[in-house]
Every structure is written in structure tokens, then in C-alpha cells.
Amino acid sequence: MRDADLLYAMWLAWLPERDRLRAAVPAPEDEPWR
Amino acid sequence: MALSIGDLDLRGVSDALARRELSSTEATQTYLDRIATHDPVLRSYITVTADMALAQAKAADAELERGHRRGPLHGVPIALKDLIAVAGVKMTGGSRVLADHVPTRDAFVTRRLKDAGAVLLGKLALHEFAFGRPVTDGPFPTGRNPWDVARAPAGSSSGSAVAAAAGLCAGALGSDTGGSIRGPAAMTALVGHKPTYGLVSRSGVLPLSWSLDHVGPMTRSVWDSAVLLQAIAGADSEDTSTRHASVQDYVAGLEGGARGLRLGVLKRYYVDFPGLDDEVRTAALTAFDVLRREGATLEAVDAPSLDLALAVWAPLMSEAYEYHAQTLRATADRFGEGLRTRIYLTALFTAQDVQRAQRLRARIGREIDALLSRVDALVFPGQAAPALRFEDFPSTGFAPASIRYTAPWNLLGLPAAVVPAGFSRDGLPVSIQIVGRRFDDAAVLRVARAYERVTDWHRRRPDASRWRP
Question: Hey, are the CB atoms on A10 and B398 less than 8 Å from each other?
Fold first, then answer.
């Protein structure tokens, strides 16, 4: 596979996790620097 | 007494040296002979440092002659993943990018092992820069599983697992950013211990992702791992993560047993995971019963935010892009295809994703800390499935699905160890994993030993007659 094809396949595999990450609403206490 | 060194664990070698049944030179030469015989098939070593090892062994023997034994590692031949620096010895990171790189200084852990009297047999294969894929050809093959050479030992500390499991060294060090010690250890019937973040220095170790990287032992028994950890743990001014390193005696409490311990089983996230292999699940449940019979109290526990762990882990791997970006721009073709594209992907995470991941990492940590205030340790299966055939490794994923069993504990920096817990019908190793409180690595090792001492999985050895191309 070409790099671009591999990268695109990995990107597609990442998208459900990204959606999960972005859907998780942080609370005020979710701040490691506090 | 005729010793079969290839069948001994590190303790067996150490005890034989202490009793003078064996010299370090004899032990070292035997391992070098075994490497010459078996490694053309197993491919666990990138560099064998025969002359240096024999010189170290001779010096260790001379000290013993004078009545000076530095400790349990005195004269014991071990080996290091080839991303840990040894002065004057090529360090490739398993990559053409560093094919001719020779460090001038020892890594902190290398110095510690030399000070403890250990003999360094060589540098062990790995997935490229600890983030590539398993390969069987090219300049840097990643090693074959000694339990079935048609299968990979997983990675990235693949050579460390192969060499330790096949008796091509008495023990090894690996590194672990998402499971690279525990995954390969689980696939080869080894104990693999990822220490608490900040307990073992990474100075002189090629980084993958600074906030997730750990260095630790891979051995045939819990005692072996405890002794190696004892040698390498402690503060190092050149790795600020170790500023608050709190070192315990990792051997003294090993035989404390399971009686009275409270163990939490992460049932929903791990045991009930639909992707968990049935044989691994059965072995783990049987192992939990063993711990119960040994006097531990087990209860199902849960941390709902573990569901976010992989979504949190991945953006943090953008630290790898920061490390490799300049080289990648200059000489992209020198990276293997699998690694190159993975690093490209880490460049595509947004700043918001990374910061969101950091916030949710804190949330997962709070939930797990709350659990560890009620129980002494967490237990769960050590892997999703037994070792895969090389051709079955997915080529397009950012990380294998099995990483859910290991990566959350890199995020949190908690001590985590796998210990052999049986074999599949195909004769492939399976394991359980134990996670403890920060800087309480001794408790993790105690639980692992409580299980190990009433089982015999760790005494089984792969069949060398099957190590054929």
C-alpha cells in the first residue's frame, strides 16, 4: 500500500475513537494542572 | 551437577554462580553458544557483544574469587532492548535511521546493571523505534515466538521476550509505552513488569512518548523481575520524572502470599470484553479462583471512564511526532512503512484532541485511584488473545485492539505486571495482569508471586527442537 492509503486507513480507524473523545464532556475537575 | 542453563531462570543462574557450581564465564559462553545455535531462527538479537560479555564475566569471576559478590546479579548474563544505550555498542532502535549509531554513554539503567555485576550479552530486537510492526526480513527482523516460530511475540520488546523465553539470556529489559513489555511477556510465558512511572529512569533510552514511556524487566519468574527492578529503580537527575522515585525492597515481601489481600477484578471492561479470547478468559477466571483459594478477597469493580482510555492514549502519542518530525522530513524513506505512516497519523491530532485527552486522562486516574483506595490491587486477563501468526497482524490500525489490556496503565503510570497463567489448546501462553498503587510495585510483585508459587506455568519451556525456519 502507498503511504497515503495506509494513512487514510489508519485515519478511518481512528475516527470512532476521536468521536468518543470529543463527545466526552470534561468536568471542571478534569484538569490535571489543578 | 550438570546444569542446563537454557532451562534455568535468572534465579537459577544466580544461585548456581553463588554456589560456585558455575562460573560467570561458563554461563556467558553457554548463552553465546545458544545464541549462535538458535538465533538464526529466532532472530532476537540485533547485536551480540560477545567480547565485552566475556570480559565482564571474567571480571565478575575474579571478584568472586576474591570473595566479593555484589549481589544477585553478579556475573549473571542479561540483554537489553536495542533502544537502551551501552557506551561503544551500536544502538539502532530497530531502524535504518540509526543503523550506524554508537552511543558514547551508558543509559542510567545500563550503569546500574553494570554496577550490580551483570554481564551484557547484547542488544535485542524490537519493532522499529518501539512503534513499528513485526517483520521477519529486512535489516532488522523483530523476532519469532519460541512457542511457535510461525507466530510473532508481539511487541515492541519482541527480542527481549524471545531471548528471555528461549533461554538466550537470563533476563532482559524492555520498554513499555502502550504495552510493549507486558504484551510480549504475555505471549511468551514471561513475567513482564512495567514499573510505576517515575521509578526507573529513561535517560539514555530512545524515547517514543515521554509521558507514557517506562523501562522494566522481562523474565522467567517474579523473583527475577524483582531483582532486576531493584537494580534499576531510583532517582536520576537526568530524568526529572524520577524526582520523587520511592524505592521499596522488591524481594523482601515476595513470599507474603495472598492471604488478606483485597483484589478488584475489572470485570466489565476486561473480563466481559467481547473481543477477549475464550481460552484467555477461562484461564484468567481459573487464576482468580487460585488467588481466592490462597486467601485473597476478590470483588468485581469498575471504572466507567476506562471506555475512553484508547481515545485518550492515541492523541498523546503525538509526542512521538515531536521526536521524529525533523528526521522524517529529512529522510522519510529510511523509516519502515508501518512506522512512517503511524507517525504521520500522530501529526494529525488536533491541539484540542490532545488537551481533551489530558483532561480525560485525569478523570480516568481519579476513578482508578478511588478503586485502589478500596482494594490492594486490580486483576484482569493479561492479553486479549494468544500470539498471532505474522500474516494475521493487521496492517492498517493505529494500534492493535489488544492494547486496551495494557495502554490504560501507561496513561496512569501505575505499576502493572503480567504473570503466566496457562496455555491455549495450541500450546500458546496466556497470562493475567496485576495493577497496583503508585510506587507500590512490591505489592504487584507479591500478588504475582502468590499466584506463581502455587502454579507451574512459569516452569514450562518452549521446545527447541521446533525452532526451525
Answer: yes
